[in-house]
Amino acid sequence: MKEAGATKQRPLLEVNALKKHFPLQGGLLGRTTGYVYAVDGVTFTVDRGETLSIVGESGCGKSTVGKAILRLTEPTGGEVFLDGRRIDNIPLSQFRPLRRRMQMVFQDPFSSLSPCMRVRDILAEPIVNFGLAGSKSELDDRIALLMDRVRLPRDAISRRPHEFSGGQRQRLCIARALAPGADLIICDEAVSALDVSVKAQIINLMSELQDELGLALLFISHDLAIVEHLTHRVAVMYLGKVVEIANRRTLFAASKHPYTRALLSAVPVPDPAAKRERVILRGEVPSPINPPSGCRFHTRCPYVFERCRAEEPQLRSMGDGHMAACHLEEAPEPACAGSAQT
Question: What is the pTM of this model?
Answer without folding.
Answer: 0.88
